[in-house]
Amino acid sequence: MAMAAQSIDSKLTAADFMALGEGPPYPELIDGKLISSPSPSRNHQRVIQRLYQLIQNFLDNKDLGEVYLAPFDVHLGDHDVFCPDLSYFSGERLDRLS
């Protein structure tokens, strides 16, 4: 989907970011600017997979929350949308997920 050109001084909003559609690539919106990172290394991926397994094993059969692997956008304001490698949401915050 095409997006209207932004003036040099304006920041993209989370709504602008969401209008870009799903990746790949999977950029992040940091302080209103699109930021792309290189793909993670093989070792990095192994560490994230292991952390996910450990956290998920702990959460199994407990009603504490949920853990997600990337890509999963986390909105932290009007000009910040991150795609962390691993995200945990407590049970009290699950209603904020879409």
Topology of helices and strands:
Elements lengths: L13 H6 L8 E3 L2 E3 L6 H18 L5 E5 L4 E4 L2 E3 L3 E5 L8
Antiparallel strand pairs: 1-2, 3-6, 4-5
Summary, kept brief:
With 98 residues, the chain is α+β, with helices and mostly antiparallel strands. The chain is built from 2 helices and 6 strands; from the N terminus they run H-E-E-H-E-E-E-E.
Question: Could you list some keywords that capture this structure?
Answer:
single chain, 98 residues, alpha+beta, two-stranded antiparallel ribbon, 2 helices, 6 strands, 24% helix, disordered N terminus
Alpha-beta classification:
alpha+beta
Major sheet characteristics: 2 strands, antiparallel
Average predicted confidence as pLDDT: 85
Q: Fraction of residues in helices?
A: 10-25%
Q: Give me the Rg, rounded.
A: 16 Å
Side-by-side strand order of the widest sheet: 1-2
Low-confidence stretches: 1-8
Number of helices: 2
